[in-house]
Amino acid sequence: MIQLILEQALNGLQFGLMLFLLAAGLTLVFGIMDMINLAHGSLYMVGAYLAAAAAAASGSFVIGVLAAVAGTAVVGALLEVAVLRRLYARDHLAQVLATFALILIANEAVRWVWGDQPMLLNAPEALAGPVEIAGFSYPAYRLLIIAVGVAVALALYVVVAKTRVGMWVRAGASNREMTEALGVNVKRLFTLVFAAGAGLCALAGALLGPLLAVQVGMGESILILAFVVIVIGGIGSIRGALAGSLLVGVVDTLGRALLPWLLRAFLPAEVASNLGPALAAILIYLLMAAILFWKPAGLLPARG
Amino acid sequence: MAGVGMKSALYRQSARRRGLAVAALVALAALPLLLQAIGQDFYVSFAARLLIFALAATGLNFIVGFGGMVAFGHAAFFGAGAYTVAILAQHGVTSAFVAWPAAAGLAALLALGIGAVSLRTRGVYFIMITLAFAQMIYYLFISLKTWGGDDGLSLPARSGFGPLHLGDDAVFYWVVLACLAAVLFLLDRIAHARFGRVLQAIRENESRMEALGYPVAAYQLACFVIGGTLAGLAGALIANHGLLASPNLLHWTQSGTLLVMVIVGGVGALYGGFAGALTLLLLEEALAAVTGHWHVALGLLLLGVVFYAPRGVAAYLHGLVTRRQNDD
Q: Exposure of A89 by Cβ count < 10 A (0-12 exposed, 13-18 middle, 19+ buried)?
C-alpha cells in the first residue's frame, strides 16, 4: 500500500512538473497582457510532433527534444508578432475567437504535414527499464522527467527572481503601464517571454510524448488543466503556477489511484467502482471552484 | 467591455423590422418544401441542426451580450438537456411534453447552481470557473458507465409529440423552427420589459445599479438561468436530431464553438446567435465540400472576423449597407 502511494505520488510530481512547463508561459501571457490564449495547447502539440519527427530523422531522442524546443520557440515568436500582438488591447471575447481559430489552423496544419495517425516517439533505450529506489522499482524515464522538470523550474526561478530580465517580467506582470513608463520595452520583452513559453511547451510535449500519445487534439485536453493550474496559483504568478501545478498533478494522480479504493471502504463495491473514477476525474475542478470561491485571486497572487 | 454599448439599438425593433422577421419566418417555414421540390431532402436535416445550434447560441448570447457575462461553459447546459432526454427515454419516458420541459428544467437548475457560485467572481475568473463547472459535468458523464460513458447514450426514436410524427425530418424541422421563433419573440419581449432594461443597465454600469439599490446579483443570476434553460431545450432537440446524447456535446470545445457563433454573429444582437450559427455551419458545410483541409480556411476566416468585423458578421453587413446609403 505504502509503495502504491509512493509510486503514485512520484507520478503526480512528474505530471505536475510537466504541467508547470505549460503553465509557466501561459500564466505570464495571461498576467502581463491580460490575454486568454487558447492556442497555448497547440504549441505543446507542435512541440511533440517536432520532437517525434526530429528524433525519427536523427535517431537521437536528445536531438529531437532540442530541435522541438528551438523550433517551437521560433513558431511561438512568429505567432506572437503576426497575430497575438494585435489582440492584447482587445476584449476577452475577441481573444477567445482568434485563438480558437488558431487551434483549428494548427490542428489541421499538423494533420496536413504528419497525417491522421498518432506519431511514435520512443524514450531513449538506456532509460527504458526501471530503477530501484528505496526498495521499489520506478521507471527510469519518469525519473528523468522529474529531474528535468525540477532543473527547469529552478532555472526559471533563478531567471525570474534574480536577473534583470526576470525583474522586468515580474514588474510587467504586476503593473504593465508603470513598467512601460519606467522605460522597459514591454512589447519586445513580451515576444521573448512568449517564445520562451513556447519552448517550455515544446519541452513538456517532447518529454511526455513517449508516455502519452503524440496525436492531433493532445493540446486541447491538457490546455484546460494548464488553465486550472494558473487560476489556482494566481494569474501572472510563476510561484503560483509551480504550486498550482504540483497540487493539481498530485491531487489528480493520487485521486485517480486512491479514491475508488477509499470509496470501497464505505460504499458497496458496484457503486464505488462506478462513482470512484467519476469523482476522481472532477476532483481538480472541484478544487479549482472551491479555491476561486474562497480565494478568488488564487493561492499566490502576482499583485500583492 | 468594448463593443457592448451598441446592443440596445439592435434590440429595439421597429415595426418594419418586425415585418422582416415575419417574412423571414415564412421563408424558413417554406424551406423544407423547397428542398424537397428540388430533391435535396438531406438538407432538411442539416437545416434543423442549424436551427438547433442557433437556439443554443441565442441562449448564450443572452448571457454574454445581454447580461454582459462571458460564460465559457455553455456546453454543460446543452449536454445536460440532451442527456436528460436520452436518460428519460431509457426509462420509457418518450413524450416530448414531459422530456423536453424536464431537459430545460434540469438545465435551469444546473444553471442556478453554477451561476450562484460563479457570479461571485468577475472577468477572467468568471470565464474560468464556468469552464471548470462544465468540465466537471463532462467528466462526470464520461465516467458513468450506466449512461454510456465515452460512447454516449443513444435514443431508440425521436420523442413522441402528440399527433405529429417527429421521425419525419420536415416535421421535426418545423417544430424546431417554432421553438426558435417562440424563443426569439420571448427574448425580444424581455428586452423591452423592465427586467430587460435593468439587465442592460447592469451591463453598462454595474456599480451604479448597485448603488441605486437594484439586486444586481439576482438579476444576473436570472439572466444566466434563462440562457442555460434555452441551451437545455436546444440540447433536448439535438439529442432528438442525432438520436444520441454524446459526451462531445459537453466538451469544452463545444462551449468554444457556441461562443464563436455568438461572436461571429454579433454579441448582444437579438439575431446574433442565429446569424452566427448560420454563418459557421454553412461555412463548414461549404468549405468541407471544396477542400479536405477546410479547418484552415475556417480558421483564417475567423481571424478575419476578429480583425475586420469585430462586432460580428451581422453588424459588418449592416455597416456596409448603411455606408452605401450614406454615400448615395
A: exposed
A285 domain-assigned: no
At residue A132, what are phi and psi to the nearest 5 degrees?
A: -90, 125
A202 in any annotated domain: yes
Q: Which tens digit of pLDDT belongs to each residue from B17-35? A: 778 888 889 889 888 888 8
Q: Residue A248 falls within a domain, yes or no?
A: no
What residue of A is the nearest CA neighbor of B253?
Answer: A220
Domain hosting A187: range is: 7-215
pLDDT number for residue B322:
63
Is A170 part of any domain? yes
pLDDT tens sequence across B286-300: 888 887 778 888 888
Out of A199-208, A232-241, B300-309, B313-322, which region has the weakest mean confidence (pLDDT)? B313-322
CB A64 within 8 A of CB A209: no
pTM for the full model? 0.86
Using alpha carbons only, what angle is made at residue A161 by residues A292 and A168, rounded to the nearest 5 degrees? 90
- What's the total number of domains in chain A? 1
Q: Which one of A220, A224, A259, A279 makes the best mutation probe of the B interface by having the most chain B beta carbons within 10 Å? A: A224
Predicted complex ipTM exceeds 0.85: no
- Nearest residue to A54 (alpha-carbon basis) of A220, A214, A217: A214
Q: Give CA angle at B304 (A106, A216), nearest 5°.
A: 15
pLDDT given for residue B57 in this prediction: 95
Nearest CA in chain A to B267: A93
Best of B306, B308, B311 to substitute, by most chain A Cβ atoms within 10 angstroms, is B306
